[in-house]
Amino acid sequence: MTADTRPLILVVATGMRHYREYLLRSISTEYRVHLFVTAEPGWEREYVTGWTVVDDTTDGPAMAAAARELAARDPVHGVLCWDEARILAASYVSEALGLPGGDPEMVRRCRDKHRTRVALDALGVPQPRSAAVSTVEEALRAAGEVGYPVVLKPRGLGGSLGVIKVEDPRELEDRFAFVRDLTVPDGATFDVPVLVEEFADGPEVSVDAVVQGGVVTPLFVGRKVLGYEPYCEEVGHYVDARDELLDDPEFCRVLQDTHTALGFTDGFTHTEIKLSSKGLRVIEVNGRLGGDMIPYLGLLTTGIDPGLAAAAVACGRPPALVPERKLVGGVRFFYVAEDDTTIESIEFDEAGLPPEIDRAAPVVAPGATVSPPPKGTLWGRIAYATALSPTVDECRAALDAAEANLKVKAV
Q: Domain ATP-grasp, which positions (predicted)?
C-alpha cells in the first residue's frame, strides 16, 4: 500500500453539519485531517484520517499537550478552527507546535470586541466610538457622550447576537439587561460585558480574507440582510463575485489597516464593515472563516475554495485564489412566526423550487420547539436556502420562491 503523503492538518471541532460539512469535504481532498473533538465523530468520519477525543475543546493548554503527543507520532503541518468559541484555544495549539496562527494575543484581540476597538483606535482605523460598560448607569452616561441612537453589543459574542439599536435613554434602560445577560454555549464572558457604540448608518458588508505575513487578500464580500428590528438578526446574505468593493482602494486600505492594527499576521478572517454616510466604519473582526454559509457562497460564485485556502494558510502554504467564474449567490434563513412553536412537520416542496436554488434544507426536526428573534436568535432558524444566479435580482426571486415553498406545520 502506498503511504499517504498528504500534509496532516489538525481541525479543532467541526460545528453543525448543515453549515460546515462543505469545508471538511474540501480540505479532505488535499490533506489528511485529524480532529480534536469531545465525542466520537459521526458524519465527519468520511473526511478524516483520525481523531482525538479531548475533555474540552475550549481548553487551549490541555489541547496543546495532546497536540504535542500527536505531532510526536505524525508531524502536524497546520491547525485550523472555524468555531468562534474555540479559535482562541486553537491558537494555543498552533503556538505549541510552532505553526502559523500561533499567537493567542492576536486572536484575543479579535475575540474581545473592546480590545479590538482599543487596537484600531491606536492606529486611527475608522470605527464607531465605543465604551465598555457593566451597568445600566454606565451605559446611560456613555450613550449621552456618544449621542443617540446608539448600539448595545455583547463584548464577546458573534453573529450579531444581542446587538440592538436604541433610540433614547428609556429604550436603553429597557434593553440593557437583555444584552448584558445573553449567553451562548462556551461563549466568552467579561466582568465589563457590554459595549455602547455610536450608531453607523448605511448597509453592512462582511469580507472573508486570507492573511499571510500580515498581507490581507480579500476573497468574498457578503452583503447582509438584517431583520427583526431593533435587533440586528442576520436573516440572509448576498455574495457577488463582481462586487466593486473587492477592487476599491479605500476599502482595501481600511481592511489592511484593520489587520495591521490588530497585529493579525496569519489566518483566515471575517471582517464586518459599515458603508456609512460618514465613510467606512469597521464593526468587528472575527479570526476565522465566516459563518452563515457566506464562504460557501464564495465557493459557488467564484470557484475559490475557502476550506482549501484556509488550510493552506494554516500550513504556511500559498493558497489557490484565482477565480474560475463570476456569479451571484444568496442565502436566506427562515423562522417561525411565534415564540415557543413546536414543529410537527417541516419540508420544502421540491416541485416548486426554481433551478437557481442550490440547497433548501430544514435545520430542525419534528418535535423541536423554536422561537423567532429575539428569544430564538440564530437558534430560532428552522431552515435555509441558497441560490446561484447571474444577478442579485434573480437570486432574490429564487429565494422568495424557496420561502413560498417551505411547508411548516405546528403542533
A: 117-315
Strand order across the 32-37 sheet: 50-53, 32-37, 8-12, 78-80
392 closest CA partner among 282, 207, 244, 232 = 244
- The Cα 307–Cα 310 span in angstroms is 5
The three-state secondary structure class of 62 is: helix
SS (H, E, C) 181-234: HCCCCCCCCCCCCEEEEECCCCCEEEEEEEEECCEEEEEEEEEEEEECCCECEE
State if pTM tops 0.90.
Answer: yes
Q: Which three cell numbers stand for residue 217?
A: 487578500
pLDDT digits (tens, 9 = 90+) for 88-129: 999 999 999 999 999 999 999 999 999 999 999 999 999 999
Q: State pLDDT tens for residues 42-84.
A: 999 999 999 999 999 999 999 999 999 999 999 999 999 999 9
Give the amino acid at 100: P
DSSP 8-state symbol, 299: H
